[in-house]
Amino acid sequence: MADTGPDLGELSESQREALQTYTAVTDQDHSAAIPLLQRSQWNVQIAIAKFFDGEAPDPVEEARAALAASPPPQQYRTREILLNGSSSFPHSSISPSRDPAPRIVPQPENRNLYKPPLILAILLTPFNLVYRILSGSLGLFGYLFPFLPRLLGRLVRRSPTRNSRRNTTGRRPLSPRDTAARFIREFEEEYGSHELKFFEDGYAQAYDLAKKDLKFLLVVLISPEHDDTTTFVRETLLSPDVEAFINNPQNNIILWAGSVQDSEAYQVASALNCTKFPFASLIAHTPQDSSTSMSTIARISGLLPASAFIARLQTAITQQKPALDRVRATRAEQQASRNLRQEQNTAYEISLAQDRERTRQRKEAEAAKLRAEQEQKAKEDAAEREKQKVEQWKRWRSQQIPPEPGTDVKEITRISIRLLSGDRIVRKFTSSTKLEDLYAFVECHELVQNGAKAAQATKPEDYDHQYRFNLVSPMPRLVYDLDSGGTVGDRIGRSGNLIVEPVGDEEEED
Fold this sequence. Notes:
By secondary structure, the chain is α+β, with helices and mostly antiparallel strands. Helices cover 53% and strands 12% of the residues. The protein is elongated, with a radius of gyration of 54 Å.
């Protein structure tokens, strides 16, 4: 069957949002949802109400259908044939009309109590006092003449002007769930244990579940005051064959029952046009009428044996099951398509997340490598600058070392120094030479020994030279550290035999 509704690409943004909201609530396919939204002027609330409560017939469409139909005499003849059950004519492909099954939400009883304002209550106080006095007087009068209240009560019950139902059973109105639980409890107390699985909620909830899951809703209404109720329950409803038929999962039956003594069951009986008890009605979705319709496909009134009861239900289920199977297959196909799209979207999101993670890791690795290279280059540059400053300092410091004194100088100190390379040098220093000059001589020994006259060097800026060795006298062991300061004559004397020890080696020996 071709879809007469517009393509999804032809819908506007607001219409797509309305379609998405409607299908999320009703779980209806797009081919059926779009025409219903069009008939509802794309109003989501009206469309949802039509889906659950049933769509009322459109008078304009009915008029058009009447004009396009066959002439009136043939219509009357066709109706007469259907009513009389004549089989002399071929079977018509047009399905017989079905009574729509409304969705009933129970209305609360005796809850709209009017409370007048304070000023009005004060004004009505005298009338309230008079009413109480008259009520007390009539109560005393009724006590003296007890036959009068019974006579007045009969007249009131016979009055045809009262068309509203009063709760005369003394049963407290409850919520639909509590009402169902009370009925199930009273049913088991009255008829004992059984295998029937009553729906433990209200009629509207059972109606919605049957419509959503494409199941058959079997509504059973009983009146405890009716003479046939006990016989119907014990011999028909609780018979093993009926119990097995209702509980059979292949029949997809939701059983909801109620007593007309309860407000909800009474309203359901009125809506389903129940005229005789016990009463049973089989309700199902009728897609051949409309995409949202729920209709009564079987109606059983009065007392029937179990075999006839099952036969009526089986006939209705057999006739309606192919239509429901087609809708169920369509929904399953659409659900499979949605699941496939969801799996594809999930796989795409996972692949995208993995690609993003790999990209992030690659960028982090590249950034870490770049930082390591920059740090290494910075260290090499710093070491190179440090080396240049050391060389510049050595050139500058070598020019500041005083020359070796001549033979005419009396106050001298003769020092033998063994270098780290193993070479030994001997040099004379004046006794007033500072100990730091002796360290500088050892540090700049190569420049001093070569005797090259380098260009005048300056002291490097922002540089403080650190000597990485100590001058030590081996016998007895004595370290001539710079921190103590002093001159060569004061610290070493007339002569000395020193060795150069690295600072690291000195610390390890300590």
